[in-house]
């Protein structure tokens, strides 16, 4: 099968799982878990004889995680979390007798390095924007450091102009208040009341995080590493370059741990370039270099 088409039994299981999950998890988490479960189900349909997600084994999970999910550790961790949550639910309601995902090893998150979107790419994205909401989703990432899921749920009620603050609903339905960038103070009141990215195609009433992410990648020219999260990384790098307040940046980005925020402490490429360029040229080296170049040209 293709295009993530599910069989009728799988669709019924998928709907029951996401419905149950929605009673205690955020819409973003429900969508993320539902997405990876859908991928797992289509993988089971396409690669196993029985074609059932309820008959997969620990060995099947290892194969799926290593070959079908993608190379990024963060992606594998999201997929693994989906396995754990889904099969725990399936065992609880009697769909399976024993949870095969219980023995999955834990995955340590990669330390990573910041991946800030270059200013030129952002300018070109703004030039490609054909709608006001295109501009807004770019600026929410670049100037407020918001995740795609946070951007998708942004509402006019979250804007507090008297205090110049923005309320952001982050991971795990955790709220945070952050200062509004001066440009956003001017821009946001121009939009209609309600969700900034409305959609009548979803029960939530707003665009889904995946749709926001897809649109941002389009605006950024579908270049590798250019996405909504690279806009958030640009915000983090820029903020820390101007003010080395790690705890403050943690609160702005909504990180649960300052260890996550520490990736932004890695020096920017411009600072590294300055460190190298400022090393004085040793006496006599330029003459030796010119002689070497002449020898190479003659030989």
From TrEMBL:
GO terms for molecular function: DNA binding. The keyword DNA-binding applies. The keyword RNA-binding does not apply. Keywords: DNA recombination, DNA-binding. It comes from the Bacteria. GO terms for biological process: DNA integration; DNA recombination. Residues 15-91 form the Core-binding (CB) domain. Transmembrane segments: none annotated. Residues 112-277 form the Tyr recombinase domain. InterPro entries: CB (IPR044068), DNA_brk_join_enz (IPR011010), Integrase-like_cat_sf (IPR013762), Integrase_catalytic (IPR002104), Integrase_recombinase_N (IPR010998), Tyrosine_recombinase_XerCD (IPR050090). Belongs to the 'phage' integrase family. This is Site-specific recombinase XerD. The lineage of its organism: Bacteria, Bacillati, Actinomycetota, Actinomycetes, Micrococcales.
